[in-house]
């Protein structure tokens, strides 16, 4: 069975995930993390695709990127992956692939899920037990959103700007969101969509004609026969 093309819906952002091959580490030290972030900043600027949120984990990366032209996310990940693998292999004296196949992507319905994806991404180090508070992890966009640092890589989505009229209000509201934690149903929905490439959110609000392929899986089982009376 041929695999589906990557889902693209004009005007909607995307959640991207890339893992190390067989779960191997893709960062060995702070220099690797810093280099990847620099490559990400440069590649995003080159393809004109703003990054709303990110986290660099020891063996995978999550990115939330803006709506762009079809293929822009692929161009970003191709440039980023090629440059970083070359750097990583040269620096650590290795050869071969670093990534586990293709990166994963899913389209996000902004009103319901953009800020949920911010939270999902930036709480990843807490869920993994690397830190006890999201702002303690240096390789994510959390400290930027809390107002603890200014990250030139990040361009925030309008849903984040709507959290308050001042930077302090936005930062305080967003901090409260993270400290409240993630509802289980929200976490399950994001994980399901992120690993399968379906749309995250109310896909029936998006016309199938506006997307480049189906936005949700087909119903299971054979279609029912119509009965002629």
From TrEMBL:
Q: Which domain of life is it from?
A: Bacteria
Instruction: Enumerate the SMART domains for this protein.
Output: Y1_Tnp
Region (Disordered) residue spans: 209-229
Name this protein carries in UniProt: Transposase
User: What residues does the Transposase IS200-like domain cover?
Assistant: 9-124
Pfam families on file: Y1_Tnp
Q: Which InterPro entries match?
A: Transposase_17 (IPR002686), Transposase_17_sf (IPR036515)
Q: Which PANTHER family match?
A: TRANSPOSASE IS200-LIKE DOMAIN-CONTAINING PROTEIN, TRANSPOSASE, Y1_TNP DOMAIN-CONTAINING
């Amino acid at each position: 069975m041929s695999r589906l093309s990557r889902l693209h819906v004009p005007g909607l952002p995307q959640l991207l995930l890339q893992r190390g091959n067989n779960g191997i580490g893709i960062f060995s030290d702070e220099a690797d993390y810093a280099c990847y972030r620099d490559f990400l900043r440069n590649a995003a600027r080159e393809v004109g695709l703003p990054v709303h949120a990110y986290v660099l984990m020891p063996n995978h990366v999550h990115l939330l990127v803006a709506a762009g032209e079809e293929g822009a996310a692929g161009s970003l990940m191709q440039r980023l992956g090629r440059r970083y693998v070359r750097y990583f292999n040269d620096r650590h004296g290795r050869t071969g692939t670093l990534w586990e196949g293709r990166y994963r992507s899913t389209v996000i319905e902004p009103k319901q899920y953009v800020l949920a994806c911010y939270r999902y991404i930036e709480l990843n180090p807490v869920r993994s037990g690397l830190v006890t508070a999201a702002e303690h992890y240096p390789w994510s966009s959390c400290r930027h959103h809390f107002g603890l640092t200014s990250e030139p890589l990040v361009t925030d989505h309008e849903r984040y700007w709507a959290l308050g009229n001042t930077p302090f209000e936005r930062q305080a509201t967003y901090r409260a969101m993270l400290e409240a934690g993630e509802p289980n149903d929200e976490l399950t929905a994001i994980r399901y969509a992120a690993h399968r490439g379906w749309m995250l959110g109310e896909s029936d609000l998006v016309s199938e004609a506006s997307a480049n392929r189906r936005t949700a899986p087909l119903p299971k089982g054979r279609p029912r026969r119509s009965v002629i009376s």
